[in-house]
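User: We ran a pulldown and think these components assemble together. Before we commit to crystallization trials, I'd like a predicted model of the whole complex to look at. Sequences follow.
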Amino acid sequence: MKLSTKTKVIEQGEMTLAERMYLPAIVGGMATTLKHFFSKPVTIRYPEQTRYLGPIYRGQHILKRDEQGAERCTACGLCAVACPAEAISMVAEERKKGEENLYREEKYAKVYEVNMLRCIFCGLCEEACPKEAIFLRHDTMVPVFNSRDEVIYGKDKLVEKMDQRYLRDGWK
Amino acid sequence: MELLNDVFTAKAIFVGIVFAITLGIAAYSTYFERKIAAFMQDRIGPDRAGPFGILQPLADAVKMFMKEDFIPANSNKWLFIAGPCLSMLTALMTSAVVPFGDTVTVAGVTFDLQGIDVNIGILWVFGIVSLGVYGILIGGWASNNKYSLLGAIRAASQNISYELAMGMSIIAILMLTGSLSTKTIVETQQAGHWNILQQPLGFLIFLICSFAECNRTPFDLPECETELIGGYHTEYSSMKLGFYLFAEYINMFISGAVMATLFFGGYDYPGYAFVAGQFGTTVAAFVGMGALIGKALLFVFVFMWVRWTLPRFRYDQLMGLGWTGLIPLAMFNVVVTGFGILIGQPILAGIAGVVILIAGLFLNDAIFRKKKLA
Amino acid sequence: MDISYIWYFLSGLTLLSALMVVLAKNPIHSVLYLVFTFFCISGHYVLLNAQFLMAVNIIVYAGAIMVLFLFVIMMLDLRKNKPDSKSPLTKLAGVIVSGVLLVIFIAAFHKNNMPSPTAEAVGFSSQTGMVENLGKILYSEYLLPFELVSILFFVAMVGAVLLGKREAGERNF
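Assistant: Here's a predicted model for the assembly, 719 residues in total across the polymer chains.
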């Protein structure tokens, strides 16, 4: 039975003398390895050196602030609904008088937690967010952890620091 | 008597230095093997222990010593221990007759840079190499494991087969030199008259055989992982395994030194007369020792280079190459060398031998091989 | 230190290891003791200033033949060859043969009454065992025996090749 029209029968005749002596082939092979010996390595010393992984790499989560430094999240819960791994949980709270510079909307997330053991870094929370509040950073990965207590990231770890703002390529 | 003691002390110190150099080079061979493998595969290789990973052998040694030293319950305990010891012993004994340098005078004592200058030097190397297989054979049998035994049996038959071709390639050298002493063999090659010019074929045979004798790829069937798990050292762990691996690297270095001695002028190097004239013969001899070690290291590099290029032979291919390829070739080489000595043109005969061989093979091919069916 | 002490030590070691070859229960141990015996004999060659013989003894006997012995014994099933499995008749035959051999040896030494060679003996040369002298003697005085031995080996080799050759129509696997 013919599975494909592109099959090609290759006639392999007896080996010629040079092929039977192997030595020319061995010399050829050794020339190839020597060429690679002097060529630049393709690997890097990873933890010290890192590669640029692209502008849309999905790393650690971040809760963005706006230009005035107010948190953008309004605790609508769409991210938690979108999350296929059910990694996100939050507690909403109403904004008090005098907190306008802290929270942009009238409702904000008092507690916002991402369980990094559950998270599969699919980025659906990012897509679901109507306020452009949650992003998966392209430049930072979730670090290695040693105990389960370190796994649940609260607002202290997630909210963007004003002195080191997160900017993605293509943003102004 | 005083003089004898001085020479004895000097020799003892020299032998100690040779041991230290051999062991140090063997230790660092493990590091360079991994580095060279990495470079040939476009990687970086070990670089965590110290700058560029140069402390890696130390880390490996610590690991080897710290691991559990396991002796299987049904093994033959004493022979199990004796195996790696014998391997190491025979590997270290070979360097006794390699002439590392010319005569030197240090602190008023004149002595040769050579362990012992016996008039059977090359036979000593040969004898010890042939004993090297006992370590593997005993270790493999004492493990009481079928894979170990198969590896050991492979090692034994492989070593015996390739020793024949190796011995015959040396015979051509002995015909040219007229002596079994390694010192004399080197002395006849001084000032650039290296044996490789007269013995290109002999060198090729010797090189291939030393690959087989050291159990290096492409002849590493005794420790072939895909078929035999670990071969003869399947059951070994800790420093006993370390001894087996270490012995392999020592063997590599020593066979490089022997090849340099037999074919590449030993401690001879271009500009020997200039150095001797400028700084005296002692300095020149020590530079010569460096030259010999450099040549040996070059061969170690070739060993590694080949390992990361070629795949392993199948067992019948290995035996076929040894018995039907190399032994007739070595005999042909002996005949050609004899002819060269007869007409007084050994270099011409050496080159002519290679040419005749290739021409003969082509002719044989053209006449006797069946034409490919159209 | 007198060199004769080395000789006594070496001879004692040789006899001991040779005895162990016979007395060892395990055939593998026997072979290893035999290898050690060959080493001791090589040591004797060194004492006689016959370095070439020493090297050749190690290469050929210890390095090649004994490896093959070991090889074959490892392939055998050792459990089938326990000493108890031999019949009394075999044991009796062994005792008779070895006893007769011992008597022959003792008689031969007794009859000949060999004088022990000394360094001052007439015609003694310390260089006899050197490679050059050995080669010259082998190729002049003992040329005929030497060539006959090589023909013998050649015949043996041809025989081995003939036995190993595959006959037409024969299948090995």
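The interface with chain B takes residues 13-14, 16-17, 21, 26, 29-30, 32-34, 36-45 of chain A (CB under 8 Å). That may be worth checking against your pulldown data before setting up trials.

User: Thanks, that helps.
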